[in-house]
Amino acid sequence: MKKCKGRHPELSIIIPVLNEEKELPRTLERIGTSVETEVLVVDGGSVDRTVDIAGQSGARVLQCRPGRASQLNMGASAARGGILLFLHGDTRLPNDYAAMVRETMAQKKIAAGAFRLVVDSPENKMQWVARGANLRAKILQLPYGDQAIFMRAADFREIGGFPEMAVMEDFYLVSRLKRRGRIHILD
């Protein structure tokens, strides 16, 4: 990952991790390198090679107590980008994700966005789960964290970030963002 010398990146990608050594390399490789993008990996106490992998990729590594909400909030507080993208350690972004995110967030009526969920599994039940998640996200404007939710950093801070809870922190964050505008789901 290239460092942004003397200027702030446009996009900050925040990845909360805990023992993600198997999936994290592919996720980081897919992100690529750009001076407009910074990557923050927030580790919740991994005991495998997760931290080494993140550091070798050029990502900024932060240490935090375990808990996705805490990790996401810590990453957001350290982020320098005007747009925050929250990404699970086992989630891959599409090749042109950065342009798609910038174009979406340039629209003032859109408060946040996320990507359509695609599951890398041949199992029919997993494909049905993805279809259901995509239908929920599109109709109800309620994407979950595994869909790479993104928003303006200023909006994230104004609504108080992720609530400190064990599960469904993404649901509550998006519910608050909906009051500010539309949640757009990208293919």
Largest β sheet strand count, sense and barrel closure? 7 strands, mixed
Cα-to-Cα separation, first versus last residue: 25 Å
In N-to-C order, the SSE pattern is EHEHEHEHEHEHHE
| Rg value | 15 Å
Query: What's the arrangement of strands in the largest beta sheet?
Result: 3-2-1-4-6-5-7
Number of strands: 7
Q: Notable features of this structure?
A:
187 residues; alpha/beta; seven-stranded mixed sheet; 7 helices; 36% helix; 20% strand; globular
Notes on the structure:
This protein is of the alpha/beta class. The protein is 36% helix and 20% strand. The protein has seven helices and seven strands, in the order βαβαβαβαβαβααβ.
Note the topology.
Layout: E1 11-17, H1 24-31, E2 37-43, H2 50-57, E3 60-63, H3 68-78, E4 83-86, H4 97-105, E5 110-115, H5 124-140, E6 149-152, H6 153-158, H7 169-177, E7 182-186
Parallel strand pairs: 1-2, 1-4, 2-3, 5-7
Antiparallel strand pairs: 4-6, 5-6
Short description:
The protein is α/β, with parallel strands linked by helices and 187 residues long. 36% of the residues lie in helices and 20% in strands. It has a 7-stranded mixed sheet with strand order 3-2-1-4-6-5-7, with helices on both faces.
